[in-house]
């Protein structure tokens, strides 16, 4: 550690330049992590934060809600066999507030059931009316407003807002199940899914029905798997680039110091001491760069537009930082190998 600190202090400009490059890479990793998490929540926060552990759909739907139609008899059987089973009905709608046209997903749930939204402002479904995802406040919607569904002209009075109610990048509009069926008479009492708080292995299931847990339901949500897969691959390639850049930079630095390593070995320094110094220098420089990048990223979050799907927690930053430090440790092995092969006589002769 002593040698690592002395060299960083002596080679300030070089250390600053390399640290700056590492910080830029870390910044991109943090931003992509925030965008990935943000898009995930924008697409499926309703499923990510729901207390439900399992979802029942018809077998042919493969777990996709909008392809599933459960009859009232099937729903009743599930509720009789499983405590707390809650029906969920959904349909995508367009509605207007004054002269402003908006869209969302109309969700029919039991006002006293497992899926009933917890109001963050105003009242819940028990007050009648609709509870909206709070992102609609950015479009000017307020408690007490009356929304007009298109093209039917049906009216919904906003009684409250809730958090984490987005599905397929659309804000949720909760209404009671009876109200939902009144607005969708062609469904004839059918619903799209039944949510259960019990784990899949504890659920009693009838014939012609399919059971998926929360993770499986997310994976079959239209577009979710493809969107997350693309962003994850970008992150993987970025981390791979970070590993390559770190390995090459520090290997070149090690080659430039071959004579110095030879001299230190000649006066008694062990290979382990020199290798430890190289690894410590790399990790310390990476740690400082990652810390600076994390601070800049968390500051940048405050400047992002309110509508941008970005979600980054200290836990996400810590996980990404740990990954970058692990990558730096692995990248340092190339330099360690070079240090171990330095012959004092040859290195001093070359010097």
TrEMBL record:
InterPro entries: ABC-4/HrtB_transporter, ABC3_permease_C. It is a multi-pass membrane protein. This is ABC transporter permease. It is found in: Cell membrane. The chain crosses the membrane at residues 16-35, 233-253, 274-297, 317-336. Residues 234-344 form the ABC3 transporter permease C-terminal domain. It holds the Pfam family FtsX. GO terms for cellular component: plasma membrane. Its main location: membrane. PANTHER family: ABC TRANSPORTER, MEMBRANE PROTEIN, HEMIN TRANSPORT SYSTEM PERMEASE PROTEIN HRTB-RELATED. Keywords: Cell membrane, Membrane, Plasmid, Transmembrane, Transmembrane helix, Transport.
């Amino acid at each position: 550690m002593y040698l690592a600190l002395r060299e960083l202090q002596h080679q300030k400009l070089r250390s600053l330049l390399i640290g700056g490059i590492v910080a830029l890479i870390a910044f991109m990793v943090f931003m992509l992590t925030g965008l990935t998490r943000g898009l995930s929540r924008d697409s499926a926060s309703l499923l990510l934060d729901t207390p439900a552990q399992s979802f029942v759909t018809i077998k042919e739907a493969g777990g996709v809600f909008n392809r599933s139609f459960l009859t009232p008899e099937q729903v009743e059987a599930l509720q009789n066999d499983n405590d707390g089973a809650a029906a969920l009905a959904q349909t995508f709608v367009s509605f207007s507030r004054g002269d402003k046209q908006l869209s969302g997903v109309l969700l029919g749930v039991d006002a006293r059931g497992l899926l009933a939204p917890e109001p963050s402002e105003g009242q819940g479904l028990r007050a009648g009316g609709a509870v909206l995802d709070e992102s609609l406040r950015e479009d000017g919607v307020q408690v007490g407003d009356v929304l007009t569904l298109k093209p039917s002209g049906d009216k919904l009075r906003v009684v409250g807002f809730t958090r984490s109610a987005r599905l397929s990048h659309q804000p949720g509009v909760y209404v009671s199940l009876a109200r939902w069926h009144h607005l969708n008479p062609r469904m004839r009492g059918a619903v799209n899914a039944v949510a259960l708080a019990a784990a899949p292995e504890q659920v009693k299931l009838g014939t012609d029905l399919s059971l998926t847990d929360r993770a499986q339901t997310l994976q079959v949500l239209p577009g979710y798997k493809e969107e997350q897969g693309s962003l994850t691959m970008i992150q993987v390639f970025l981390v791979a680039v970070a590993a390559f850049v770190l390995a090459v930079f520090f290997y070149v630095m090690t080659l430039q110091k071959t004579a110095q390593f030879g001299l230190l070995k000649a006066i008694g320094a062990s290979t382990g001491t020199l290798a430890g110094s190289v690894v410590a220098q790399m990790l310390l420089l990476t740690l400082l760069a990652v810390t600076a990048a994390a601070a800049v990223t968390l500051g940048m979050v405050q400047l992002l537009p309110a509508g941008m799907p970005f979600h980054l927690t200290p836990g996400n930053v810590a996980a990404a930082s740990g990954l970058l430090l692990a990558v730096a440790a692995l990248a340092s092995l190339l330099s360690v190998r070079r240090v171990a092969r330095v012959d004092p006589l040859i290195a001093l002769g070359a010097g």
